[in-house]
Amino acid sequence: MAVQPTSLLQQLLDSGSSGCLAVQSQGVTWSFYFQAGHLFFATHSIDPFDRLERHLRRLSHTIPALNREVRTQARTQFEALGGPTASYEAICWLNAEGFLEPSQAGTLLQNLALEVLESFLLITTGNHELINAPSLLILASLPLSELITRAQTTLNHWRAFQDKVTSPFQRPYLFTQTRGHQRLTLEQQQRLGSLLRGYSVRHLAVLTNQNELKLVKSLYPFIQDGTIFLREPQAPFDLLPRLDHQSQAIDPVIPPEDISEGSDRSLVSLDAPHKQFKIVCIDDSPTMLQELSRFLSDQTFTVTTLNDSVKALMEVMRIQPDLILLDVGMPNIDGYKFCRVIRNHVQLKTTPIIMVTGNTGLIDRAKAKLVGATDYMTKPFTQSELLKMVFQYLS
Fold first, then answer.
1. Crossing angle of the two packed helices 48-59 and 68-78, in degrees rounded to 10
2. Which backbone phi and psi does 13 adopt, to 5 degrees?
3. In CA terms, which of 72, 127, 265, 295 is 20 to 30 Å from 66?
4. SS3 for 211?
5. Which residues carry this modification: 4-aspartylphosphate (predicted)?
6. Which DSSP helix (H) or strand (E) runs through 127?
7. Which residue intervals of the chain are DSSP H helices?
8. CA 373 → CA 47, 285, 345, distances in Å?
9. C-alpha to C-alpha distance for 324 and 330, rounded to whole angstroms
């Protein structure tokens, strides 16, 4: 059936209702939680913890307490709960533990709601219902009308680029065979080449700590002339509505005045992360090691590949990596034993260890957690999926 997103939300505001407005459209569910007509949380079903990680990472620039270890702990503790409110419960935990002040939690919830609204306002059909919501601690009352106006404005700004950019989750890559390179210095080519390796525009903006629209404005001329090409969003982000989707909730395109400052071809802000992260890949398969190295080797990462688990123990302690990708099924010392030994080393207790395996059983996952693994990846995986994992655990 036809859906008018702003009207649905306004009805909840006017009625003073409590509960969760759940709206389903094209395989995505948007959930808006109200208490007596006041919005206090908004989310959608597409990877809510990726969304939370991105916003926490932005806040970490001004709130040092939100470091990688704290963010990882919040994700590990609450993502397994599942359900639409798991990320909200993680925010409540961060507030209760003192990592977020109440005002900071309110700001975080507003920013999350704004991103959710930007996609919600683009839908035109779907099904909706008001359902009972679980009892939740209310951290803040969100200014819904103001957030809707801000979301509409942001969408209009995005639409200024919609002939080429149809989703903030599209993935820009540097196209090496183009005349556009003649307008790029060697330094700019190297900088772009090291950054544009599978991250979406939205993730790239977080990595470089930039406004998304300013980032797109900087890249847009190079997208137009073919120097940069855009790949489609990686699943599941491809399920979200496209920016070129016409919606009654969006006003005619307006000039993006607040992003007009600076040169269209200013790439100086696209700095790669200052730290060159050290990643160790341990696998008895040379083919797998070559693939991991190909996916990760650039100016941001220093990749060391090791195929002997016995020798790898000494190398890992010598290198002191920032992240370890560890195969489970290795001879002599398997991944579980290796992980347990590493965790007993005082300088490697908090190093992210990602178990990589072809096994998908829950017993393997439980065992990996028991020996201290940070996360788990199942073969085969794409470069984008690997970079997403790296994004989560390297700051």
1. 160
2. -65, -45
3. 295
4. coil
5. 327
6. strand 127-131
7. 5-15, 48-59, 68-78, 86-96, 102-120, 144-159, 186-195, 201-207, 212-224, 286-296, 309-319, 335-343, 362-370, 383-393
8. 21, 20, 14
9. 15
Alpha carbons within 13 angstroms on the beta-carbon side of residue 147 total 29
Enter the pTM of the model: 0.81
Residue 166 φ then ψ, to 5°:
-115, 0
Distance of alpha carbon 145 from alpha carbon 158, whole angstroms: 20
Q: 167 vs 6, 205, 282, 392, 393, CA distance in Å?
A: 21, 14, 36, 21, 25
Four-CA torsion 43, 49, 54, 58, nearest 10 degrees: 90
Q: Which one-letter amino acid corresponds to residue 177?
A: Q
| 303-328: pLDDT as tens digits | 999 998 888 988 998 999 999 999 98
Which tokens hold the place of 30? 């948007």
The pLDDT of residue 302 is 87
Over the chain (395 residues), what is each successive 10-residue block's mean pLDDT? Answer: 93 92 97 96 96 95 91 87 94 97 97 98 95 94 96 94 94 70 68 75 90 92 88 92 65 43 44 69 92 78 89 90 91 88 88 84 73 87 83 76
Distance between alpha carbon 71 and the CA centroid of its chain, in Å?
Answer: 13
